[in-house]
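Q: Got a minute? One more chain.
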Amino acid sequence: MKKTSIEQFLNAKEFQQVKYFVCSKGVAWRDCGSDFLNIKSALFGGKGANKLLNEPTTHLSSQISRYGSPYFCAIWLISEHEKLDIALLVTDNEIAFVPVSSIDGFSKVSVYNWGSKSTIEKTILMQEAAIMKTKLESIFSEASDKISLSETDFHKFAEHKVEQIQSSDIIDDLVNFLDINRSTESSAVVKSRVGQGQFRKDLIEYWGQCAVTGCDIHYLLRASHIKPWAESDDRERLDVHNGLLLIPGLDLAFDAGLITFLPTGEMQISKALPVSKLAYLGVYQVEQKIKGLQKKHAQYLEYHKQYVFERWLK
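A: Always. Here it is, folded:
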């Protein structure tokens, strides 16, 4: 059977259950119930992953006190009508799209009568949890498609769709979450925002490393559009020459118009960004230059310099 695409997973309409498991310091694989209505509530609801990992309520804090600090949350859907082979593996700042088969075979750890477990039993459980953490770290690092664990990023994604179309439902859980629509764009274009899909893979193949710093740890790098995604047509959105592979700090600064690059590769820095702050972006030399640019990059870089760089002054 053909594997589920990220778009199909997020757009799933008929499912019976949302599975939600947590790996924490004291318990390797704890079933946290299936009372979530959809992906949105499992991610951002009052008992969801973001709350547990970043902003625990009193109830969630009591869980942390019992079972230890959470490392990962895992979310997937159970459906009798379609194969949903994708799961979400969530850390405190990112969501990775991984195969369900990579995580749904782990044995559930019972926490029944937790208070009566002996110190030895809890020590053994902690050892098992450490092993599980290592396994999940490996699965997470191998995932090529990731999104920030941020409601703002979901809203940003939604805004791009609103600007382009007024037709059928967007990804099912995002509809409930954001009340937006999506166009009939190809799944490759949708993935280029959801998980940076084919566009990200093309940039990794083209650049192989951060275009500026040379960092070659791929899961740390961002696929950054030169001409902003919302201002590009479908062809431009997937054009490898409209992209740079950048470390996160440079990606944010480039997107915000605090830096730009000339067609010759030299980096220009806005006066709004003090040179003394460059280290916060992962840049330790003022004079930086991109190598490997082609003539096809020039039109996009010129657009960025004219319309994105220091846009607040224009």
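A: The longest helix spans residues 119-142.
Q: Perfect, thanks.
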